[in-house]
């Protein structure tokens, strides 16, 4: 960040508080591309020297930017540039890729695992199939505009989408790939909960161990009511927010 002129930043005749001017200066640097999404800001001491302000003022500015969703704070690691949290709870069943498209964001994935395996007792019970039945396990790190946002694990019975692993899930939607293989998703039973990030999620999403996560478990059915997908999506709590509207009936 180029040091701003001290007389402009500290001018006493400006009506806005100093911390607000500091926050604006930092955001201007972010918007100018000096600090891309996901990168860490310089240490607080360096920022204080560059901006010629106290650490108290700087931290007030940084805290404001965290509240606005422009930055995230990780204890012991510093301040990181973040996209403001955004994601409306969809009114219809849609994939991560479709949600991103609706919000004008670019979705991409890093495939961690894509394998054919035998269904465990628990997975078989949830999917309504016999234990040992062939299933596809697809595990991906999901990105929004290049920022790692979620760890997505999906289990699909082979019979529901034969040859599913031939698709490229770094860019392709799982729902669309399943439709191409003869199965159209129709309804999902969803459970939302919060929990701290474990070692796998921390590494995949570059989070501190124990950071808050939003976890969504879904059992997805096709148009005939058959379970065709068991899904677990673990979202970084500081990078994703679900928002919905409730209307009182009756």
UniProtKB/TrEMBL annotation:
Q: Which UniProt keywords apply?
A: DNA-binding, Transcription, Transcription regulation
- Gene3D superfamilies under this entry? Chorismate lyase-like (3.40.1410.10), Winged helix-like DNA-binding domain superfamily/Winged helix DNA-binding domain (1.10.10.10)
InterPro entries linked: Bact_HTH_transcr_reg, Chorismate_lyase_/UTRA_dom_sf, Tscrpt_reg_HTH_GntR, UTRA, WH-like_DNA-bd_sf, WH_DNA-bd_sf
What Pfam families does the entry give? GntR, UTRA
Q: Where is the HTH gntR-type domain?
A: 16-84
Q: Which residues form a coiled coil?
A: none
Q: Does the keyword Transcription apply?
A: yes
PANTHER family per record: MANNOSYL-D-GLYCERATE TRANSPORT/METABOLISM SYSTEM REPRESSOR MNGR-RELATED, TRANSCRIPTIONAL REGULATOR PHNF-RELATED
Protein name per Swiss-Prot or TrEMBL: GntR family transcriptional regulator
């Amino acid at each position: 960040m180029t040091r701003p002129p001290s007389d402009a930043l500290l001018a006493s005749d400006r009506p806005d508080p100093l911390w607000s001017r500091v926050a604006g200066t930092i955001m201007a640097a972010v918007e100018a591309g000096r600090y891309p999404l996901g990168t860490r800001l310089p240490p607080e001491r360096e920022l204080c020297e560059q901006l010629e302000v106290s650490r108290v003022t700087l931290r007030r500015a940084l805290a404001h930017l965290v509240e606005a969703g422009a930055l995230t704070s990780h204890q012991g690691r510093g301040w990181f540039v973040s996209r403001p949290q955004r994601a409306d709870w969809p009114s219809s069943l849609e994939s991560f890729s479709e949600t991103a498209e609706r919000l004008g964001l670019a979705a991409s994935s890093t495939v961690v695992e894509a394998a054919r395996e035998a269904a465990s007792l628990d997975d078989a019970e949830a999917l309504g199939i016999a234990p040992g039945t062939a299933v596809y396990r697809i595990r991906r790190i999901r990105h929004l505009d290049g920022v790692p946002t979620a760890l997505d694990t999906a289990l699909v019975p082979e019979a529901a989408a034969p040859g599913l692993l031939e698709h490229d899930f770094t860019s392709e939607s799982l729902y669309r790939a399943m439709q191409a293989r003869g199965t159209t998703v129709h309804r999902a039973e969803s459970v939302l909960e919060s929990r701290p990030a474990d070692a796998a999620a921390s590494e995949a999403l570059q989070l501190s161990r124990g950071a808050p996560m939003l976890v969504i478990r879904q059992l997805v059915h096709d148009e005939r009511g058959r379970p065709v997908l068991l899904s677990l999506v673990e979202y970084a709590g500081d990078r994703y927010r679900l928002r919905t509207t409730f209307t009182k009936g009756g």
